[in-house]
Design a protein that fits this description.
A hairpin with a 2-residue loop joins strand 7 and strand 8. Among the domains are: 136 residues, Succinate dehydrogenase/fumarate reductase flavoprotein, catalytic domain (Flavocytochrome C3, Chain A, domain 1); 116 residues, Up-down Bundle (Methane Monooxygenase Hydroxylase, Chain G, domain 1), CATH 1.20.58.100. The protein is of the alpha/beta class. Helix 1 packs parallel to helix 11 and helix 14 runs antiparallel to helix 15. It has 16 helices and 21 strands. The protein binds flavin-adenine dinucleotide. The site of flavin-adenine dinucleotide has 43 residues, from helix 1, helix 4, strand 7, helix 5 and helix 11. Flavin-adenine dinucleotide binds next to helix 1, helix 4, strand 7, helix 5 and helix 11.
Length: 605
Amino acid sequence: MEPYDLFEYDVLIIGAGGAGLRAAISAREAGCNVGVICKSLLGKAHTVMAEGGVAAALGNMTSLDGSKEPDNWQVHFVDTMKGGGFLNNWRTVEIFAKEAPERVLELEQYGAVFDRTPEGKIAQRPFGGHKYRRLNHVGDRTGLELIRTLQDKAVGVGMNVHMEVVLTKLLKEGDRVVGGFGYYRETGKLVVFRAKAIVMATGGWGRMFKYTSNSWEGTGDGLMMGYAAGAELLDLEMVQFHPTGMVWPPGMRGILVTEGVRGEGGILRNSKGERFMFNPDYTPALYKGQFAETPEEAARWLDDKKNNRRPPELLPRDVVARAIYREVEAGRGSEHGGVYLDVTHRGAAYIKRKLPSMYEQFHALGNVDITKEPMEVYPTIHYTMGGIRVTPEECASTVPGLFAAGEVAGGLHGANRLGGNSLSDIIVFGKRAGDAAAAFAKQTTLGNIDESQITEELALLMSPLVDKGGESPYAIHQDLQEEMQKNCMIARTEEGLNHALEAILSLQQRAKHLSIGGDRRFNPGWHAARDVRFMLRTSEIIVRCALQRKESRGAQWRLDYPKLDNEHWGKFNLVAWKNGEQAQIEARPLDPLPDRLQALVEEQK
Ligand SMILES: Cc1cc2nc3c(=O)[nH]c(=O)nc-3n(C[C@H](O)[C@H](O)[C@H](O)COP(=O)(O)OP(=O)(O)OC[C@H]3O[C@@H](n4cnc5c(N)ncnc54)[C@H](O)[C@@H]3O)c2cc1C
């Protein structure tokens, strides 16, 4: 057996984004010794990239539907359930909506400095699908402030951080997880962690699509490590297309244009200058007699400040993304194949104060001055609603000792996440996962490491360095991205999905024989070989689930099954698990909403 570094912890946290750091704080405060691992440097997770804000019903600002009541957890609950097409786990959403305000205020106590209202309260901005101005923010750099704050706090309470370490396998003793195995990115040297409890907090997986807002880290490692260890996965077909990613220049395609732009009044237009979100096909509710008969009337009505309504650009992400897709398909797209997003009417000073990163992003990357001209945007893969299936209260997976929180976990967002709900997700459930992992750790001892599991994984990792004449992992990755982008994108069909499945199965065969040059030191090709393995299996499950769900709901838009099927599919989640070498998928009945929560939904209708 090749030598390896060995570390031992009560609680091991894989991932140092917001979920991982919040879990580290609570596990440490519960008296555990805590190790945190991240693939890159501390502070460089997706969390730092978050722009628009963190959603919590603090009730500092007015509603967008004319209601005089201050915001409250009940409305946040209903908004989140509706946004998620009621596929969400209701108990998870209830906990989330109730605890998000406390967690945001706690961030303030830790030292976060939010933007302020004139009265000195935390400023909140509107976002898609939220009935209230609910996104607590720091300009368009909310994630940076969140991670800075959590990092300071976590370092203060004392945790051990292992940076640029990649875990690739969870180690088990019987049913229980007892550790993890991986390597140092720079040197390729091996490392083993023994732990009484593990929190998976590795974030999402957008990198199997060609255009994504995700960084190189979003390869689904944690999801697949959990899957390999026997954890159940939930609703993987639900992959979110954010309506607005950059389109131009080509190298920048997919980079996020925050929903904060629309929250600050940004208007979407097609190449004919039409504000197409008023098209009755996209927003039929505007024309149900309540508001208007024609798009012009609807626009006038909404623009009238005293009506205090949210504009149709702030409908949930799935609705806006589909509208943009259809405009482009209908030949009304912008010069480079997107649509226009215009915020110039807010004036240069306001834009630079409220959207400084967007201003700089377009200026530096696209040579576009967004205070003077519109942006070009198109949907980009952004977020994964599905993930490791966990219990609402304790974030416990189906594998003893393994907890999961943040984007890698499923259940909260259902078929579609509302903007801002992820940053509150990671602090609410990061804390809960840390608490639960600490409680678990206190009742158990360190398990034994079975070196044969390490040897097996090492052989798999080494094979592309040893095999000669195989394919490049980059070629496989590129083919996978093309296929997923083409056939498992925003608009899906049986034919396209079957094509994607066949292609993925054939790529999996090709990926059995990969070859790369060099050795384990400073070798990105070696990392890519491992990434491809995780991404192929994840893609296969996404496609199989998308094939199985024969309806349109949230992020799953089936052109061949365009209707919401509440009679059947609205009652089921799709659950996947590893059965030998195969992924087994089953439609599992949703726990129905209890009467007290159903009453809330009825009230909000
Ligand atoms: C551009 C952008 C803007 C966004 N804006 C918003 C917003 O305004 N509001 C909002 O609510 N949400 C927003 N989101 C979504 C939100 O930022 C993420 O969903 C959230 O931050 C995820 O947090 P996390 O802690 O679960 O994972 P991440 O922040 O992604 O952290 C994952 C961690 O896991 C580590 N890791 C991964 N794999 C391994 C491995 N194999 N071994 C060791 N470590 C590993 C990584 O290094 C990293 O430290 C945005 C996302 C993006 C990309």
